[in-house]
Amino acid sequence: MKAIIIEQYGGKEQLKEADIPKPTPGEQQVIVKLHATSINPIDWKLREGYLKTMMPFDFPIILGWDAAGVVDEVGEQVNSFKVGDRVFARPETTNRGTYAQYTAVDAHLLAKIPENLTFEEAACVPLAGLTAWQCLFDFGNIQKGEKVLIHAGAGGVGTFAIQLAKHAGAYVATTAGTHNVDLLKSLGADEVIDYKKEDFEKVLSDYDFVLDSLGGENQEKSFTILKNGGKMASIVSEPNQEKAAQKNIKSGNVWLKPNGSQLAKMAELLKQNKLKVLIGHRYPLSVEGIREAHAISESHHAKGKIVIEIS
C-alpha cells in the first residue's frame, strides 16, 4: 500500500512516499480502508524527534492518528463492525499511523460515522474532539453555568471545545485573532477576546476552568483569571504547581486517551447537528501535500482542521 513515512527524525524533507505491506487484523482489530486523515501537532512534534523518549518507535514510521474510512477486514473476535461500515477512530499511537491507504484499529476504539458527515469531516473529529472532551469533562468536570476560557479558539481543539462547553451550558470565552472573531461567535462563544487588541488577563476574572493550548506566558497569566478552586487543563505543558497551590487550582497536562465510546457520543451530537466540523485546509496524500500540511500546522495559525484526502 502507499504510505508517507519518515526513516529518521528531522524537518519536513524527511517525509517520503513508500510502498509498505498492507496490515493484517489482529483478533480484535479491523482494517480500515482510509478515505481521509487529519494533521495534528503530535505529527510534526514526533517527526522532529521531540517525542522520541516518550514514544521510542522503530523506523520507518507512518505518522498520523486520525482515521476515517470503510471497514475492509475484521478480526476473528470482532462482531460489532462488519465489512463496508463507515467508521472513524483515534487509533492507538503506534509507528503505523494513518498517512496510508489502510490502517489497523482496535475495534473498541471505532465509532460509526453519522450519515450526515463526509469522510473528510469525520477525519477531523477523533484526536481534536476527544482532546477537547477529556479536558472539559474528564479533567474539568464542567457544569452548566460555569465560566470557561478556551485559548486559541480557532484551532482544531478550540473549535470543538467551544461547541462542547456551550452544549454543556457553560459561559464560554475564547481568545483569537481579529479575523476569527465572527467565526467563533458563530460556533457559540459568548465572548471573544481579540488578542491583537486586548489582554484577556485584564478583561476576564473569576473563571471556573481554562483550557490552555498555548503554554508559556498565556498559561502563567491564566492563573490570574481563575477563581479559587478553579481548574486548568493544558495540552502543551505541565502548569506551575506552586502557582496552582496558591489558589487551590487543580491543574495538569492532559494527554489524550483513545476512547471509542466517547467518540460515539460525539457522533450522536454530530448527527443531531449540535456539533459541527470546521475544515480550514485540504491536501492530498502525497509528499508535497503532507509537507505543506505540516507547515500550516507548525505555523500555529491553522484555521479549524487540516484534512488529508486519501483517494
TrEMBL record:
Record-linked PROSITE patterns: QOR_ZETA_CRYSTAL
- Gene Ontology molecular functions: oxidoreductase activity; zinc ion binding
**Stored Pfam families:** ADH_N (PF08240), ADH_zinc_N_2 (PF13602)
Cite the InterPro entries for this sequence.
Answer: ADH-like_N, Chloroplast_QOR, ER, GroES-like_sf, NAD(P)-bd_dom_sf, Quin_OxRdtase/zeta-crystal_CS
Q: Where is the Enoyl reductase (ER) domain?
A: 10-308
Q: Which SMART domains does this one have?
A: PKS_ER (SM00829)
Q: Where are the transmembrane segments?
A: none
Name the CDD domains on file. MDR_like_2
Q: What is this protein called?
A: Alcohol dehydrogenase zinc-binding domain protein
Record organism: Paenibacillus lactis 154
